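Example record

Each entry pairs one chain with its bound ligand, 2-acetamido-2-deoxy-beta-D-glucopyranose.
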Amino acid sequence: MMCIPLFAVLVVLLLIYRWHRQNQILPNLSDKYVLITGCDSGFGNLLARQLDRRGMRVLSACLTEKGADNLKKETSSRLQTVILDVTNSQSVSSAAIWVAQVVGDKGLWGVVNNAGISIPTAPNEWLTKEDFYKVLNVNLLGVVDVTLQMLPLIRKARGRVVNVASVAGRLTICGGGYCMSKYGVESFSDSLRREMNPFGVKVCIVEPGFFQTLVTDTNIQKDFCRKAWTRLPEETRRSYGQQYYDTYCSTLEKTLGRSNSNLSLVTNCMEHALTAQHPWTRYSAGLDAKIIYLPFTYFPTAITDFLIGFMTPKPSTTT
Ligand SMILES: *[C@@H]1O[C@H](CO)[C@@H](O)[C@H](O)[C@H]1NC(C)=O
Ligand SMILES: *[C@@H]1O[C@H](CO)[C@@H](O)[C@H](O)[C@H]1NC(C)=O
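Structure tokens for the complex follow.
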């Protein structure tokens, strides 16, 4: 019984230590260059504005001219933009040359691999290899390419790589390339973290739950769902049944519609990863990730399958 108060004191001390460690912020943020991909909208756009306000030197990579122009209107003259398509190696290497010129001897303090897509998503059998490829090409190979090309500049600054994975990189909640790509980002980040440790480069993973950045895509997803369904052979459609299709597509829509709209929960994690003296290896953002999806990953497979089964429609025939 004597041990209990002692244990409580130790826990409190540990929490205070963690809190103190977490709150140590780097000096001279205004000297640091950070490249963020996918700044046209969503997390990337918000993070660019947030870090710009903190006085960092933000290099915003946008897919479109329009996205870049809009961002410039809302930010200081410190912020610079570059057009980048992460699926195009030529585009990535041009951006790397531009970044090298801008940062000079300082090197690049941070790269935030944020650009990503979530569509096409559907049950695996409704998809083609091309559908998988599309998502993997942006979300996984894009992250790998940008990271590899920026790494010499990051090593020079003994900086940070911040990769946006997802809670879907810890728990597979649906078919298609999305979860696969996020598992890939987790794996890439894990090996890179170990390899970069001796160079003083830190690799951080951000794992958001469901956020409304996906919602701008609701209509495209709905259209895709219909397209994937109608192109299926008659026999396949009969096996799944109309009700499966209706439920699957409307559940997806509802999940996206209900998702968290407070994007700063995610961008605050990214900001901590870039500005803290001691960044965490993993950040989970959003209550759904913390209290539902991440705990699911610790259950035995049979239980996880059963619970996820609740969210998945049943086919009309199982022959
Ligand atoms: C911060 O910047 C100042 C002036 O540029 C420099 O003298 C100082 O060494 C820097 N501190 C760190 C920790 O880099
Ligand atoms: C969003 O999250 C941030 C960070 O936790 C919090 O400070 C802010 O109040 C939240 N905003 C809304 C509208 O809930």
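Residues 129-157 form the longest helix (29 residues).
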